[in-house]
Amino acid sequence: MSKPRVSRREFIKGGVGLTVLSALPYAPRAFAQAENDRIVAAAKGIGKTDVTGMIWSNYYIPMQPSMEDFRKQTGIGVGNIQDISIFDIPQRAMAEALSRSPQFDFFHIDGGMIPSLASAGLLEPLDPYMKKANFKIDAVGDYAKLFTYKGQTYGIPTDGNVHAQYQRKDLLEDPDAQKRYADKYGKPLAMPETWDDDFNIMKFFHNPEKGLFGSANLRNRANGVTWYLMYLYAHGGFPFADDMKPTLNTPAGNRALEIYLREKAVAHPESPGWGTPQMIPQIAGGRSVACQYWDGIIKLNENPKKSKTAGKWAYSTPPSANVGGKTIVRTISSPVGALLVNKYSPRKEAAAYLALWWGTAKSANQYVADNVNTFHDAWHKSNMTNPGVEAAYTSGGLKAVGECLQVACPPIYLTGYLEFQDQLGKHLSEAYVGQRKASEVLPNVENEWAKIVKRIGTKKLQEELATYKSNMPTIDKPKMS
Amino acid sequence: MSSVVAVPGSVAPAAPREVSRARGIRRFKWAILAPLIALFAGVLLPVLLLQLYFSFHQWSVYLGSWWDAEWVGLDIFKEVLTDPRFGWSIIRSLAFALGSTIGCFLIGFGLAYLMHKPFRGQALYYILFIIPMLTVPIVVAYTAEMLLYDAGPINDIISRIGGVEHKVPFLTNPDFALTSVMLLEVWNWTPFSFIIMLAGFSSLPKEPIEAARILGASTWRIFWEVQLPLLRPVIFLALTLRFLEAMAEFPKIWALFQGGPGSATETIPVYIFLTTWQYFEVSKGAAMSYLVMMLMIVIVLLAIRLLRREKHAIDAMTAAASRTA
């Protein structure tokens, strides 16, 4: 057998080629690996520990393989969880804050609770751990800011829960409908550009006799408020002035209310009581024309095993509004699942590194790509190019998610978040079902909010307002990917 | 000050055996009561005292330690009593409790009347009738949601019976919502009234009924003039217990409506929950709880008074009947 002869020039050429080759497709993986290695190195000294978390199993199940991986490398894993809905965790977490209990090491909770829980003294700032592991939240756009409070990071996202525009493509592409719509509205039937376009298309196709309802937006007391806030932000509104006076009864606030209430004409008659368990089957079952809905449902819609409408939807950012001559696109991110660490826990260091681990590209791609447990939505930059994630969302769906994340606004990101939201939600719901005049809603909510501000402390909330404002998107429209 | 006049010769020195027996009874009573008293002193009393503390101190979870809270006297009570939302919640709770108690009682009473005489297959019916009470309220709520939606089976049945399509908005119309949950409460808790009334019927003395029958009274007259008056204490008990329980109903309302649509089902437990655990206004929640507790105590005291009066009336009636016999 002859020995192959390799010249020096060939050897160098081969080496350069190999370097380039390895740098191209594997570079992100290598970087991701380094990110994971740094966290493992930072957590190594802690030793074998089982942490306890409060987390909904719908979120936890797809996070488990990643956690087991971390356990193998560091000895840190999850021993027990308290499995309760993400909607119920805020109350439970606050109870932990009141009792200063060390029982739970981390909470997987709506990031909107960060100001309230930080104010109650429950949360451990994560920046020192991030610094030690040289870790940053590598989220799309400014999304990582939604987990900061007064300049510190308190949460690691696992869920890019944003509202995207869902539009029935098959209806838009119907030639007969296109002609009739153009005749009626004097513009082509296409993805809605404005909020009026959105309503007109809903109205145009709304046909309850055939089981097709214009809007699938939620209007129940608990969730409707999220839509209102999205409309408000989209029209350049913001809930508070710098002196913490509520600013809902403004042109933007009233326009948001108009959009909120007018959709009753094109909504399912049971919409006042419907939450996601009722509305999701409407969407995936092909009984809705359009909506702005949490982006995770894209995965469900496009899963032919679970949806009658796979391939029939188009996705984008929500419609835009003209504000002072500028076109503004805004969406909302609420509730958004984030990992928060208990300051009172003796295992907080272990919990913090585990949280960082779950915030890495590798983990995020693992749980976001899961198309059976679909609660985690894309949020990490690497999710946007991951084939598994793209397969779950479709390329059009993922593109829309990426754009929405760039213009995602927080809910009322202040201490007292739930109270502000519930007061608004209650009044909106009362107006929607006819228990209250529309004209009373915003002045009444402003009065109620003023009382909440007074009770929590105007000065304290004024200080928080800076964080809230800085968490708002800095661009008017998303950069198209 | 009351005085006891001793009649010479009427008070014989107690025999050692009787003294020992009395002591034994006393010990037995304390043995039964002691764990309850310990439970009250160890668990309930501290909670009540803590709530009382919060009711007089303005404290929010965001403002440091609770022992540093500011003393505000009766301010929080004043705030609660002038809060229209609290007033409406009380009215809704009273309406809900009253409606569901009457519903539970009427059906429970009717079933108990039909069931109190032995018949073939009675045990089977008994089991069937108490099943709803064994169903967890949250399951009742979720099952009801599936049954009561617009295109659900209940509306389908109504439509088929009526021959015209009906879509009763059980869950979405604010005018129907409280009634819907009231009907669920009736379904869930009628067995409770049924069991109490069945026990009441079973414990009725046979002699007055037999005597009335011998005297030629009709079944209706026996029921109206003998059984019903004798049952009055049991009826009051059943109504009172059910009313108190209904005032505290939370799981079904929360699971189905969370206080909505609008504020149609925002009863007092819902409002207290929202205030304490959604708004984290612990002081206001504590004051509201105290006020509701006072209301309940008044209702219980009234009920006890009525029960005593009924018992005296029955004792008098029984004594009169014995004298006549």
Structural class of chain B: mainly alpha
Low-confidence stretches of chain A: 1-6, 16-28
> Over all CA atoms, what is the radius of gyration of chain B?
26 Å
What fraction of residues of chain A sit in β-strands? Answer: 5-15%
- Write out the strand line-up for the largest beta sheet of chain B, numbering strands in chain order: 1-2
Which key phrases capture this entry?
heterodimer, A: 481 residues, alpha/beta, D-Maltodextrin-Binding Protein, domain 2, 5-stranded mixed β-sheet, 4-stranded mixed β-sheet, 47% helix, disordered N terminus, B: 325 residues, mainly alpha, MetI-like fold, 2 domains, two-stranded antiparallel sheet, 12 helices, flat
Description:
The complex is a heterodimer of chains A (481) and B (325). Chain A is 47% helix and 13% strand. Chain A has 20 helices and 15 strands. Chain A has helices spanning 8-23, 27-43, 57-74, 89-99, 114-119, 127-132, 169-172, 175-185, 195-205, 224-234, 251-262, 276-284, 296-301, 348-358, 361-368, 387-393, 395-406, 417-432, 438-456, 458-470, and strands at 49-54, 76-82, 106-110, 148-149, 152-153, 156-157, 163-168, 213-215, 288-294, 313-316, 320-323, 326-329, 331-332, 337-341, 408-409. In chain A, the strands form five sheets. A five-stranded mixed beta sheet of chain A has the order 2-1-3-14-6, with helices on both faces. In chain A, strands 8-9-7-10 form a four-stranded mixed beta sheet, with helices on both faces. Chain A has a two-stranded antiparallel ribbon with strand order 4-5. In chain A, helix 16 (387-393) crosses helix 17 (395-406). Chain A starts with 7 loop residues before the first helix and ends in an 11-residue tail after the last helix. Mean pLDDT of chain A is 92; it is low at 1-6 and 16-28. In chain B, strands 1-2 form a two-stranded antiparallel sheet. Chain B folds into two domains: 12-73, no CATH class; 74-324, MetI-like (MetI-like fold). By secondary structure, chain B is an all-alpha fold. Helix content of chain B is 74%, strand content 1%. At the A-B interface, helix 4, helix 18 and helix 19 of A face helix 11 of B.
